[in-house]
Specification:
The protein is an alpha/beta fold and 511 residues long. The protein contains 15 helices and 22 strands. The relative contact order is 0.14. The protein binds nicotinamide-adenine-dinucleotide.
């Protein structure tokens, strides 16, 4: 383990509020009584202001008024605002990345990567602002034209999780804004400064472009604030990212009022390692996906299904690589594994390790808390590897920590069955040099996940693809490809220029 120095509470708090101020946050206005701890040292960053759930009504009302103006601004002009946001994000990349590290403990390289993802989605959305295409179809009737037009939807409510405290907002907001929607954001309670800073940069972009600043709203608070947003009849789409437990509450509540929801929930992502796999590449792919972000990505690799012929060598190499992982202050150069978000995450990891042992597992690497003396209020752990005799209950559950289960297979169909035999369906990988296996894995007979990769780990998606997963992952798709359609409503138009009124399907209704 590398030597690491954990920063003091005072240093971090000051730096965090300074970074937020540079991003346009009125730091006096956001200070308050709500406790706000950094996972880096477990100490207070300085109290912040939480909104009451009634603030949701006011935010939605403002967003509704702004929507009436915004929806008829030409999409390329809306794109210009998002372009400016991307420029401001590039200018303040270090500030925002530092806030991500302070508030959720990401290592600097990943925090910068998260902000880069925001810049990338702004680029994508700018291009999209000139490509909101609808189809034209042939009519069965002479002198008729059939076409579809896409219109803005209204107010989009965004609920985000702690582990991507800024990127998830940008995926939703950059796309929603070019689509003509307005956004009310309920960020993770762990990352309010990230939220105010991101919104501060957007506000500046809106002001500079002469656009209505109320298209973007932020309401900070706990699940009660999220629930108020979910239940609000003025919110046309609720895009909610977080645990399956949260989605199980949000989905039916939104459906009950006939709203739309886009759910991005938990994952339980596996890699299959075939006998022909390039083990050097596989090793790197697994270690990044399983131990990176301290195991706190929705796409974190949680299971490896290895062919018996490579299991011993690969497990030994994984254990050796895990022993070399530099753990500590996420802002220290060279650190690869930062802290867990809070004590409950650590408790959940300990509980999962205990259950895995009861269910026949053997701990072969890590699992213990580290740096407890240097940071008694923070929770750093040595990423764990547990070999399992099969896919027991604990393996089928998502534990949001760096805990990797290793299992073996003999037959490729059995490996695919294991990959699919979990309630979640987010991301999956196959490491192989066998073209036929790769084709099967990405075919209808292969992985049942929303993300299906070959010779690359389960995490680290690019913004150009549609992101999301099946089953308990919620079915939503965000970010690239045609995910924008979820943020718009489709109208089918039949235009009759024939001067006659022929009815479809040959119906005769002459009077
Ligand atoms: P969480 O479910 O505890 O909280 C997520 C957000 O939902 C927070 O803003 C929270 O305040 C809000 N919330 C909680 N209960 C709510 C309710 N009943 N109604 C409305 N809002 C509610 O999740 P977390 O601990 O912040 O994040 C970790 C989880 O998020 C993991 O399960 C991870 O897999 C998942 N996640 C999924 C994706 C994805 O794209 N699929 C991305 C990131 C994280």
């Amino acid at each position: 383990m590398s030597r690491t120095v954990i920063p003091t509470a005072q240093d971090l708090g000051q730096q965090a509020f300074e970074a937020a101020r540079r991003c346009g946050v009125d730091v006096a206005a956001v200070a308050g009584d709500a406790a706000h701890r950094s996972p880096v040292n477990g100490r207070s960053l300085g109290g912040v202001r939480w909104d009451a759930s009634s603030a949701v009504d006011e935010a939605v009302a403002r967003a509704q008024v702004a929507y009436r103006q915004w929806r008829s601004v030409p999409a390329p002009a809306r794109g210009a605002v998002v372009k400016r946001l991307g420029e401001l994000l590039a200018e303040h990349k270090e500030d925002l990345a530092a806030l991500v590290s302070y508030e959720v403990g990401k290592i600097t390289s990943e925090a910068l990567g998260e902000v880069q993802e925001m810049i990338d989605i702004c680029d994508f959305a700018l291009g999209l602002s000139r490509q909101l295409y609808g189809r034209t179809s042939v009519s069965e009737r002479p002198g008729h034209r059939l076409m579809e037009t896409w219109h803005p939807l209204g107010v989009v409510g965004v609920i985000s999780a702690f582990n991507f405290p800024v990127a998830v907002w940008s995926w939703n907001t950059a796309i929603a804004l070019v689509c003509g929607d307005t956004v009310v954001w309920k960020p993770s309670e762990q990352a309010p400064l990230c939220a105010w800073a991101s919104a501060g940069l957007l506000r500046r972009a809106l002001e500079e472009c002469g656009a209505p600043v109320d298209v973007s709203q932020v309401v900070v608070g706990g699940p009660d604030v999220g629930e108020a947003l979910v239940d609000h009849p003025g919110v046309a789409l609720v895009s909610a990212t977080g645990s399956t437990r949260m989605g199980r509450s949000v989905g039916p509540r939104v459906a009950n009022r006939f709203g739309r929801s886009l759910l991005e929930l938990g994952g339980n992502n596996a890699a299959i390692v075939a006998p022909s796999a390039d083990l050097d590449l596989t090793l790197r792919g697994i270690v990044f996906s399983a131990a990176g972000t301290a195991g706190q990505r929705c796409t974190t690799m949680r299971r490896v299904i290895m062919h018996t012929s490579v299991a011993q060598e690969l497990t030994e190499r994984l254990v050796e690589a895990y022993g070399r992982l530099p753990i500590g202050n996420p802002m220290t150069q060279g650190t690869l594994v930062g802290p867990l978000i809070h004590q409950q995450a650590h408790d959940a990891m300990r509980a999962a390790l205990a259950k895995a042992a009861e269910q026949g597992g053997s701990l072969v690497a890590g699992g213990e808390r580290v740096l407890a003396e240097a940071a008694p209020d923070a929770f750093y752990v040595q990423p764990a590897i547990v070999t399992m005799p099969g896919q027991s209950d604990i393996v089928r559950a998502e534990t949001f920590a760096p805990l990797l289960y290793v299992m073996t297979y003999d037959d490729f169909d059995e490996a695919i069955a294991l990959n699919n035999d979990v309630p979640q369906g987010l991301s999956s990988s196959l490491f192989t040099r066998d073209q036929a296996e790769a084709e099967v894995f990405v075919s209808a007979d292969g992985s049942d996940c929303g993300i299906v990769n070959v010779n690359i780990g389960t995490s680290g998606a690019e913004i150009g693809g549609a992101f999301g997963g099946e089953k308990e992952t919620g079915g939503g798709r965000e970010s690239g490809s045609d995910a924008w359609r979820a943020y718009m409503r489709r109208a089918t138009n039949t235009v009759n220029y024939s001067g006659e009124l022929p009815l479809a399907q040959g119906v005769d209704f002459s009077v």
